[in-house]
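Exercise (ungraded).
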Amino acid sequence: MTGFPPEERYARQIRFAPIGAEGQARIGRAHVAIVGVGALGCVVANQLARAGVGTLTLVDRDVVDASNLQRQLLYDERDAASGTPKAVAAARRLAAANGGIAIRPHAVDLTAANADTLLGGADLVVDGTDNFGVRYLMNEWCVRTGTPWIYGAAVGASGMTMTVLPGQTPCLRCLFPEPPPGGSLDTCETAGVVAPIVDTIASIEAMEALKLLAGRTEALHGKLLQVDLWRMEWQPLGIGHARRADCPVCAERRFELLEGDTSREPVTAALCGRNTVQVSPAEPAALDLERLAGRWRALGDVELNAYLLRLRRTDGLLFSLFPDGRALISGTDDPGRARRVYTELLGE
Ligand SMILES: [Zn+2]
């Protein structure tokens, strides 16, 4: 349905003076890419779609799982039962809420190889991921292209967020020069996460997005904002002097992740809190899922839908395969085992 005139649909937002009709028009012309449509990304995507952001690109590598339903508000039990890719399920739900905007779902992993294709043309990139590797890649892409981006993270009942304006504010590497060593940080898996902190951090991200898109950059909070909702503590850390003269990304403009060697080997990554390992081929493939479905029927229960092929193996592993050769192997967090199963099913 696109039959609702914008001045009616967005009346309350236009009435808010700092946005007004001009800000709303800018929001309507804007393109925002949201990377990760998990807990944070669902809230941001929901608010920006309803606010009338003209084009939304949604990038997420995962499928909907029962443990997502506690906080990921765009998904329902049917999506979890069928293992629908999050980007697809989110796009469907958002299109029902606002048929007047363009929504581009991509059920893929953001990589150095596809970042230009996925993020190119975006006026703003918003972080909905749970993973420092992807954030560092986003940071490099955004600094290189001069695209603003908004960092956000939540675990337990606390979270943090910061808005990065390349060339003006510190970037993520200025504040966190090295990725935290594996196992040193609480994750959603070890510490859990409750919905209110997710909604709070994501709402701050969405508010910053609307300020930026409406052209009101003077209203951005300009802090590294840390929030603990259990203790009800708000700590805005000034970052005005935190730009580092030796930052490899925003000062020296070395983009190691974007320009690094691309592996010839399939790459594995454990998905936080999911007992799932992702295996990505060195080069994207173009698989005939229907033919594979026929071959795999002897190996367990096979389901094929428009987005992926799923095999529930007799050993309990659930193997979800995308047409580009990327697979999610649920029921293990052992990358070695996931690689072996992948090779067994698809060859080298
Ligand atoms: Zn920097």
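Further reading is listed at the end of the chapter. For now, observe: Residues 170-171, 173-174, 244, 247, 249-250 surround zinc ion (CB under 6 Å). The two ends are 47 Å apart (CA to CA).
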